[in-house]
Protein: DNA translocase FtsK
Amino acid sequence: MPNTMINKLPAFDLLLLPPVNEAQVASSELPKMAESIESCLAAYGIEANVKHISPGPMYIHFDLLPASGIKVSQIANLSHDITRSLSASSIQVVPVIPGTPYIGLDVLKNSRDTVYLRTVLDCAQFRDVDSHLAIALGKDISGKPIITTLTNMQHLLIGGITGSGKSTFIHSMILSILYKATPVDVRFIMIDTNMLELSVYKKLPHLLTRIISNTEEAVHTLHWSISEMERRYKLLSVLGVRSLVEYNQRVQQAADLSHPIPNPFWVPADGANMTMLMQLPNIVVVIDEFSDLILKAGKEVETLLISLVQQAHITGIHLILATRYISVDIITNLIKSNIPTRIAFSVFDKTDSRIISGQNGAELLPIGDMLYMAPNLVEPLRLHGALVHEQEIYAVIQDWQTYGQPQYIEIIPVNDYEALTFEDEELDPLFDQAVIFVVEKKRVSISGVQRQFRIGYNRATRIIEQMETSGIISMPDNNGNRSVLARPS
Structure:
């Protein structure tokens, strides 16, 4: 990857600006609306003042400060009168705005404003986030951009019917990262068995592999991700750190002092000169329609995903899973319990809404709106997603292409892949040596066998399966772990 790309990020002027007239029309009406609210309440003997006005895409939010002794119920009981005085279709009274003395009034706008991607990326909230994994989720009902990071999320599960805005949101997340990270900082693995949404990124230099388009390759890619997770865990352990951020800081500090850290797993077979530890990128695995993998490959895919979502985030590997099929067979309790950060777009009915969000409501969402659930939230947050135009995607990708083509790694070596397709009842020539290795280590690891004997993933997998058939190791449990049954001789 050329070094010229390291400090250059895309310019915001690659993204479309919203039409000026939308904001102008709204702002000219806001003071009049505030006066109408105060006058309506005063007519019923209720003293209250509008202190802040926040126009959002769908609602206009008013912070109302009631006089001493005024109850929330007094204002709530007049909601229909306030609605009539504003000539609005509906309002919602927010009894408590945490951390303030205000009561909230959310007035539904006569027409919805489009949230442009530029308005949530080219803003202080996004620019001030010091993370390569910053994500612009969209705007809340008051129009405030809501920004988080994949580091905080750990992983993300997204559900919504076709046409709900789910795919557009995935693009907005990818572009968010592309405005924060170079290929040195973040690499993507994209799995899209339908080859509909993610194929547009095929020339993006951030790609770690070519875009995965079939189930068999996707399964192998998930296996590789687990092997990479295990490798990174060992590196973190050697340095005595607890996250990829700390690991990269330690490696950089050593390099700055001209005392690079030797690779503890280097062996002469790797080359004549000992290698030094290098900084590692975050890896974002995006799986569009992971339900297709579950339906075709079944329990194996769920087991692989669970292994990753339980531990991979510590090593800088993060999963984004999306599905249009909402059912307990796809979004199982095991997946939900391990991915607490979830986003629900519009779904078919209340049952589907409860499956992904734990409550009703997602079935009523309009296109582009979402319910955002995270461990730090008491209840789901209603957000308006940003519209992403195709020309914006191409513009950002083209901007990155000027710095180089994707440098793929070979996750599935061709010869090894072909070898797996033939049935072979004979034990592998390395079988006996591998048994000794596993029994002595008292730990079953495909990646460990790979590294010890310098073989490909599929051959190592076959050796492990032969050990299971021979009764040397157990079958994998629900977490994919195996026990060593044989004792050292």
Remarks:
- The chain has three domains: 20-108, 117-401, 414-469.
- Residues 1-6, 413-424 have pLDDT under 50 and may be disordered.
- The first strand starts at residue 48 and ends at 55.
